[in-house]
């Protein structure tokens, strides 16, 4: 039975469907999934046995790997469909603001509502609040601003816009 489940062509993953992505091409997500589906079961010396069975594929590991390699991915839902299909639904981060260093408007990043950096910018898009501060280190996939601070900024901006028709252009964070 184990041999049948691990090596039968009926259970070897043959289709990966990706949806929800717009910034990353589907083939890139499929490639990451395939790298994590093919599992080394055992080996001795130069001899190894691999399986691409749907039963050895870890949905959690595939989702973590996709999110880990692409900061724009907030999360990925990986669902196995017997006998041999995997569906991946990607949720990409939504830009909330632009984060720049205090002195350098040429070193800016898009951040989401949680303050997570997900894309380096060459030009600052219009209509976004610019947050300026001194984080320890800004890198994609990590917070430049904490989530609570982002919530406060968002709330103040919404109140000013709704009640006074005023927009916030720039916020300095110390």
SSE order and pairing:
Blueprint: H1 2-7, E1 15-19, H2 26-37, E2 39-44, E3 47-51, H3 59-69, E4 73-81, E5 85-92, E6 97-101, E7 108-111, E8 117-121, E9 129-133, H4 147-164, E10 170-172
Parallel strand pairs: 1-5, 6-9, 9-10
Antiparallel strand pairs: 2-3, 4-5, 6-7, 7-8
Helix pairs in contact: 2-3
Q: Could you provide a short overview of the structure?
A:
This protein has four helices and ten strands. With 174 residues, it is α/β, with parallel strands linked by helices.
Structure explained in plain terms:
By secondary structure, this protein is an alpha/beta fold. The chain is built from four helices and ten strands; from the N terminus they run H-E-H-E-E-H-E-E-E-E-E-E-H-E. The longest helix is centred in the C-terminal third of the chain and has 18 residues, at 147-164. The mean pLDDT is 92.
β-strand percent reads: 25-35%
Q: Pick out the low-confidence regions.
A: none
Share of helical residues:
25-40%
Task: Return the structural class.
Answer: alpha/beta
Report the mean per-residue pLDDT as an integer.
Answer: 92
Major sheet strand order? 8-7-6-9-10
SSE pattern, N- to C-terminal: HEHEEHEEEEEEHE
Tally of individual helices:
4
Defining key terms:
single chain; 174 residues; alpha/beta; 4 helices; 27% helix
């Amino acid at each position: 039975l184990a041999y049948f489940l691990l090596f039968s062509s009926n259970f070897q993953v043959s289709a990966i469907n990706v949806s929800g992505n717009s910034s990353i091409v589907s083939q890139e997500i499929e490639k990451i999934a395939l790298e994590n589906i093919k599992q080394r079961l055992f080996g001795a010396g130069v001899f190894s046995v691999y399986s691409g069975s749907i039963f050895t594929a870890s949905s959690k590991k595939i989702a973590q790997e996709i999110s880990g390699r692409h900061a724009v991915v907030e999360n990925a839902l990986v669902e196995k469909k017997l006998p041999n299909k995997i569906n991946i639904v990607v949720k990409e981060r939504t830009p909330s603001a632009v984060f720049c260093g205090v002195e350098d408007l040429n070193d800016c990043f898009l951040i989401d509502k949680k303050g997570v950096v997900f894309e380096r910018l060459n030009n600052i898009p219009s209509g976004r609040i610019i947050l300026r501060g001194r984080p320890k280190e800004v890198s994609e996939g990590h917070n430049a601003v904490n989530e609570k601070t982002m919530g406060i900024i968002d709330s103040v901006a919404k109140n000013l816009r709704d009640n006074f028709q005023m927009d916030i252009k720039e916020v300095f964070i110390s």
